[in-house]
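ingest -> fold -> write
write: protein_1
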Amino acid sequence: MRDKLQKMLAAKEARKAELAEKAKTTEDIQELRDISAELDTLNTEMNELRNMIEEAEKKAGEEEFRSQKPVPQGPEGRMNPMATYAKVAKEERGEEDPWDTVEYRKAFMEFAKTGRVTPELRNGEQPTDAFAGVEDLKAVVPTTILNEIVRELKVRGQVFNRVRKLSIKGGVQVPILSLKPEAKWVGESSDVRQKVQAATSVTFSYHGLEVKVATSLLADTVTLDSFESTLRDLIVEAMVKALDEAIISGDGDNKPLGITADTRIPDIGNVVTLSPSEIGSWAAWKKEVFAKMPLAYKAGAAFYMASGTFESYIDGMVDLNGQPVGRVNYGITNGPQERFGGKEVILVEDDVIAPYDDANPGDVIAIYANLNNYVINSNMQLALFRYFDHDTNQWVDKAIMIADGKLLDPHGVVIVRKGADEGETPNP
């Protein structure tokens, strides 16, 4: 069975390579789209085959282990099947993920609370390539905690959980295909073929996102579960805020380049300004904001703004016929569902996007976009090391995650800024 699956995988890999070569030479837009669709299908099928092969190999390994190892004996020579199961499970855990064993998790808790490095921690201390440059790395965060952190980030991060996630090597240029051919009137002898090319590209760097946790916050935790949940909540609370802020307004200096700081968006005219008389006008929003979004990008686009902007100016707004346009439906889910002009409204914290009343002229007060065009590139791994803070006279545990982010396509973003009152000068 395993050999058959490997042959199927090899055939699909060969087909994938064939399509990749074909994509380099084709000049037909429809053919390129067909190739892309087939590649997506192949990647899905190949991942499924790899999982099936892994399961088959694991099963074969278990059978071989049971056939070669004697069954441990209990008292008076009776068989002890639980001892056999525990030994097999322990060895399998160690082979699959050395940072997910109970021994390593307990050693990590001891290190985070006291700084003591036990043999289990030292044996498991093998940093990945992403952390190779961190000289004083002490321990990799256990997989159990990491999985919970990633899950919580996707739930709590209103902005982060809507962007695309990648895990590719930093420093590699990722091409963005230009699929916008131009139609021309031609004569009999004219050649109108247009080659599809990678007009632009983005390059991801290695930026460290660090969270500092005072050891005193962890010292009182006794059980392994309470320690892991406490550490998870402390890290998630800080990282959610930092990631959301970086995606929206990061300046690209040792952090991701945020949407509002991307200089390509003003170049294509997708930045609009709404004056105090226009912020509550349906006609102004339709003309200045909705109309700016190209039709190809409207599917999946949503508004991102502070609660104060929505509650004060959008909710209760009516169109020219007196019909409400900022609808809030209650009772369908656990909370209200805000919508504006048929589009979802995602409310963010005031320090991510300022409310209209608190913003200065020229400040961003809303973003209209499909955040699937924004990419966060990270291996989603965390490393923990500790140091002594002489200013506070206490030990501090610092968790670091390597990540970067960039907007792939600026055409699918409309930035809304606050206009100036008469006599005011807007911020640049």
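write: protein_2
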Amino acid sequence: MLKRFFLTTMAICFCMSTAEAGAAQNGLVPDYAKSLQGLSKALVSTKKVMGAELKTTKILREHLIGTVYHYAVDLQVGPGEFDKIRMHRIVKEQRPWLPIKTKECIMTINGDLSNFNCLFMGSHFSNAVPEGYSLGVYLAEKNVDVWGLDQRWALVPEDVTDFSFMRNWDTALHLKDIQTVTKLCRYMRLAEGNGYKKILMLGMSRGVQYLFAYADAETQVPQYERDLKGIIPIDMAYKYEKQASKEAALVRYQVFKALYDAGVYYSSDGAGIKYLAYLAAAQPEEPSETIPGFNNKQAFLFTAAATYATFPPPMEPYEPFYHNLAGLFDDDGIPIGLQFTDYDYVLDLALEIPPYQSLAEMIDGEAITSGLVENPYDDHLNAITIPVFYIGAAGGEGEPGSYVLTLLGSQDKKMLVIGLYPPEAVALDFGHGDLLWAGNAKQLVWKPIYQWIKQH
């Protein structure tokens, strides 16, 4: 349950002072009164709908490219120190702090080991790719209003040692946070003259879990209370068709559940990847501490390009040759580079990822995909009738991830799986993260997404 908070005049004043500071850093004297008034109204309206009060703690505006700007607002959504989320928005401006009016709007949901910055505006944090080469910026340049959030775990500092606060950070809690930001998005757009219209939602990887859980829950409320008019799930299987895949998901569920029952409420995979990236950047030729016989660069590349080999027994990968990025290998099978995504870009992104993640949501995810553990997030899939566009990578979860489409009541269903190799070479094919970061992602993935958005 979302905890109760107080929206006070003081909080709004604090927003205004931090807004001024952010504007000063941009060298502007902005007219932000209308923007803050819209945020204030949206917070009050969202409080009424959600039955909870929210408090803003920080607001940021920064220039990305052309007339495209990024806004970020921190929201306190619970009583604890780490009960915070960050709402993001990438949009063109008419003038400082005043977004343009747009017909198209999309909410984005992050996956594991990621945040909004990494997935949707990574080019802002790296010089390895052209300025603005990110999905979020690409869509905003085409007049799409792009929203998203960093979930609570994405904001937890690296120096935390007691993770007991994550005990109840499960799918239900995160789903409430997503709904809060979605309502805020719609009410802010209403205040800006765009109307209180339903929006599209895109989920990447673990974000697909929330995408379908959200749509499933909405089938049980009246149409006028629903937020979604269409969804774009990207490269995650919400349900499996093959029995072997179901059983593999059940094993992962059991492993995670055993850790949770033993008092471990978090995953530190993010911290591990960040450390590998640091060593690969700082000491690429030094012997790896984690993979004997490899140097630090090779070890980092291995986790990215041969991800399927990094699942500790008895766990198995989502697909036999599942990998995050398509790699290049020498004759001995040692990774030497990446095919489609710039290596330095990946290093920069890896150094930006959150170190920790809540384990409870991962347990829920394996319960859902297995179909062998009772859960409340797949009871009404056949009642989902909104348009769906599934996108997969042949080297990621690919075509098996599209099985869920057969369980929906939707008539408007589309599938796109990016595969550049024959099936026998799937271990080298387009990977999970290539969908957002590859040099050819704009043509292969982003353009079809934009075209589908325009149609819906």
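write: annotation protein_2
The chain has two domains: 9-240+387-455, 243-358.
The two ends are 32 Å apart (CA to CA).
pipeline exit 0
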